[in-house]
Amino acid sequence: MDHSHHFGGEMAGGAGSGGGGGMHNMHMHGMPVAFEWGHRVTLYFDSWATETHFDYIVALLFMFTLCVMQEGLYYLRTLPPKVRAQTTEEIEGVTAPILPAPYKTPALRRRLWGTALYALNLCSSYLIMLAVMTCNGGVFLTVVLGLSVGHFLGKSRRPIATGMGESSEACCIEGQ
Questions:
Q1: Which one of 7, 69, 72, 103 has the lowest number of neighbouring Cβ atoms within 10 Å?
Q2: How far is CA 67 from its chain centroid?
Q3: How far apart are CA 141 and CA 132, in angstroms?
Q4: A Gene Ontology molecular-function term (predicted)?
């Protein structure tokens, strides 16, 4: 069975195939299967193809910034709602974890804001995925570095529970 028509060509033996055609004359364009380490890469649009080292460095700086912003956006989007500040005197007498107030549905404005941030988060995630799919080694390393720096600047700064095992949930603390 001839599948040459799937690649923009005509059926073997048909017009324009040269009579003995088949698929051996066709140029198949697919995804690369190994990292390419050159400075030529096309990100997102044909008009954004890097031809010089300077263009490539600008593209990498853009990717780095996008990745840091992606992690920062995730950090901002997942911040818990503001809670009333407590003084150390109020906290000293507490021996059990503080339980949250009863569940309450957030206001429409907060839900819309959260949805907009989620949409931006999705867009940046897919743009990063598309960049990695170019299989350019420099782009891949830049994405990993950018996401790592973004994590360091954002999520890694969140306070963690200490002295309570692996979980800060009251039901999961060992020995209770």
A1: 103
A2: 7
A3: 9
A4: copper ion transmembrane transporter activity
Closest-CA residue to 147 (of 69, 79, 34) = 69
Is the distance from CB of 36 to CB of 44 less than 8 angstroms? Answer: no
Q: Which residues contact 173 (CB under 8 A, 6 or more apart)?
A: 97, 164, 165, 167
What letter does residue 21 receive in the DSSP assignment?
-
The ranges assigned to domains in the chain are 36-80+105-153
Tell me the C-alpha distance between 82 and 79, whole Å: 8
Q: What is the pLDDT of residues 120-148, one digit of tens each?
A: 999 999 999 999 999 999 999 999 999 99
Q: What token pair was written down for 112?
A: 């819309």
**How many CA atoms lie within 13 Å of 75's alpha carbon, on the beta-carbon side?**
18
Is it the case that residue 154 has pLDDT exceeding 90? Answer: no
What's the chain's length in residues? 176
Q: How far apart are CA 35 and CA 30, in angstroms?
A: 14
State the alpha helices, DSSP H only, in the chain.
Answer: 53-77, 88-92, 108-132, 137-153
Q: Going by C-beta distance under 8 Å and a sequence separation of 6 or more, which residues neighbour residue 135? A: 31, 32, 33, 34, 35, 36
Give the pair of three-digit tokens for residue 130. 């598309």
